[in-house]
Design a protein that fits this description.
This protein is an alpha+beta fold and 343 residues long. It folds into 2 domains: 183 residues, 2-Layer Sandwich (Ribosomal Protein S5, domain 2), CATH 3.30.230; 139 residues, 2-Layer Sandwich (Alpha-Beta Plaits). Helices cover 40% and strands 24% of the residues. The chain contains 11 helices and 12 strands. The strands form 2 sheets. Strands 1, 2, 3, 4, 5, 6, 7 and 12 form an 8-stranded mixed sheet that branches. Strands 9-10-8-11 form a 4-stranded antiparallel sheet. Helix 3 crosses helix 5, helix 8 runs antiparallel to helix 9 and helix 10 runs antiparallel to helix 11. The relative contact order is 0.19. The mean pLDDT is 93.
Length: 343
């Protein structure tokens, strides 16, 4: 028997950063994001040898330890161990024996929510195996708490909810870690046109989001007026994006993205750099009407809105800067789990 799970990565269309405490606790945050057909996978094989094995597929990284109620953290396997420790404690489980393997279809640090999506997929495998009584909100909140509280990793809340729910969602982030997920019911032609016109581009660089997020958090705590005002504008951007999509008014998407990008760069100094600015300028000069960095910033993926028939021209121009265009489609399905009893 083998248990499988998969959870989709996401692109943040608007409002990025307003899901991070303390901003969301004080002012309330709003984000509009969409999941795409790049996934984090988990495969769990029950064992009966008193061992726990963690493996990262496609690499030579693996860890084998004796099964206990609580495992000590090991560098490179913090997410695996964090999930195991929390579930054993939360549900008062006896020590488990299993082999857990993960695989992700994008580099970590790419701005698509990779770490959080891995956590969601790992939790999903245990939920399927042990039949744990967890709904979507429960899984997403648990994933958030494992990363941000148990493991002390910097970041926001949107990624865990995007990976669990899937689809295009307008999310609200309130005090006491309350989250409301509002799925957008878009006309098919709006969804197709948005997908057709969006260009996803990997800069061939990665970044440590924690550094950027910690600067953002400090600016809010210090009541840095420029940074806080920019975050207010980003929250407004999420509302603008929602309204435009629901009305089918896609002509404004590029303008809304550009408004967000100019404000995003105000919340922390390291969000952009010379390469990112050059890619952005090149895309705009060859036909894009707006764009942004995906995730915290500093590297990873960018995306641009290319109306009409400008997408190929923009793609060729920015690929000349050392990165590559990534094909994608939107997905409506979030975390998915299943069991194969034939293995």
């Amino acid at each position: 028997m083998i248990i499988r799970s998969k959870a989709p990565l996401r692109i943040g269309l608007a409002g990025g950063g307003t899901d991070v405490s303390p901003y969301s606790d004080i002012y309330g945050g709003a984000i509009l994001n969409a999941t795409i057909d790049l996934y984090a996978y988990a495969s769990l094989e029950p064992l009966n040898n008193g061992k726990i094995e963690f493996c990262i597929d496609g690499t030579d990284k693996s860890l084998s330890v004796a099964s206990e109620n609580e495992l000590q953290l090991v560098e490179g396997f913090e997410l695996f161990i964090g999930v195991y420790n929390r579930l054993v404690k939360e549900f008062e489980l006896k020590p488990l024996s299993f082999r857990l393997t993960s695989y992700i279809e994008a580099p970590q640090g790419s701005g698509l929510g990779t770490s959080s999506t891995i956590v969601v997929s790992l939790i999903g495998a245990f939920v399927e195996w042990l039949k744990l009584p967890l709904g979507k909100y429960d899984i997403a909140r648990l994933a958030y708490e494992i990363e941000r509280i148990d493991l002390g990793m910097s970041g926001g809340k949107q990624d865990q909810y995007a990976a669990t729910f899937g689809g295009i969602n307008f999310m609200e982030f309130l005090a006491d870690d309350k989250v409301i997920v509002n799925p957008l019911q878009l006309k098919d032609e709006v969804l197709y046109e948005l997908e057709f016109n969006l260009l996803l581009y990997f800069t061939a660089t990665q970044r440590l989001s924690a550094t950027i997020i910690n600067e953002q958090v400090k600016n809010v705590k210090d009541k840095n007026e420029k940074s806080v005002d920019a975050m207010h504008n980003l929250k407004e951007q999420a509302q603008q994006m929602k309204d435009s999509l629901l009305r089918g008014d896609l002509n404004k998407i590029g303008e809304i993205l550009h408004f967000g990008w100019t404000n995003k760069k105000q919340i922390a100094q390291s969000i952009s750099n010379d390469l990112i600015d050059k890619v952005y300028t090149t895309a705009i000069n060859t036909g894009a009407t707006g764009g942004k960095i995906s995730g915290a910033g500093g590297g990873g993926f960018m995306f641009f809105y290319c109306p009409g028939v400008t997408k190929v021209k923009v793609a060729r121009a920015i690929e000349g800067l050392g990165g590559r265009v990534q094909s994608f489609k939107f997905t409506q399905q979030g975390l998915t789990t299943w069991t194969n009893n034939n293995l």
